[in-house]
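Notes from the 1:1 (GR / supervisor)

We went over the backlog. Supervisor wanted to see one worked example end to end before approving the batch request, so GR pasted a single chain during the call. The sequence is below; no edits were made to it. Supervisor asked that the structure be written out right there so they could see what the output format looks like.
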Amino acid sequence: MRHFGEQGATRPVSDISRIDVTGFLDTAIKQTPVNRYNHIRDLGVFFNWAVNEKMIAENPVSNIKRPTIDRREPEVLTFKQAKAMLKNATGQDRTYAAIGMFAGVRPEEICRMSWSMVDLDHSRIRIPGSITKTRIGRTIDLKPNAVAWLSTVAQKEGPVFDGDSSCLIGRLKLAGGLERWPQDVLRHTFASYHVCAFKDAAKTSLYLHDRRGTEVLFRHYFRDTLVEDARKFWSLLPAE
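Structure output shown during the call:
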């Protein structure tokens, strides 16, 4: 609120106008298309909440144009890298990698999960809203090979990962033969291989709890060049 006049945090939300928001976007943030887009989105969510709470009559962000973003294709593991990572990782490192790439669970959510949320008998993971980014729970059905990999490291109780997270990425890079670690690469690997293999963007979106439309998600993650790797990925078993 310090950007909206001298009154700072004491200024009523109802006093903030479209001109104020535009001034903030033009002067107070890093001037990149992605940063501007994200700020408009987040401010829009806040002011929509204020409208719903009857604090303001209309959203001052509603008519502010969002910049066009040329988004890069998400980076994913190749089938060879995914196979190597699973085979070479052990213990909780393998658990982390398997849940990330076979279920698309966010990294911070994996670190909050317990084995009570992993039901291998019924081939599913149930993540309660109390540990999710969105505060909404979700159930993810596991494919047979995901169950097989998780069975090699499953425990009766306790956290699925409470190891040394400071060196985790380095260990997984080494296990998979990666030179670098793209952001959210395990989750992106799940998303791309799931939508490429099963061509059901609605289900992929449900498992990811991705609030973008299914058409956008399909366009973002589906690539013809990944279809063959996706087929092999969902057939990969520990014995191979």
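Supervisor's comment: Strands lie at 118-119, 124-127, 138-141.
Batch request approved.
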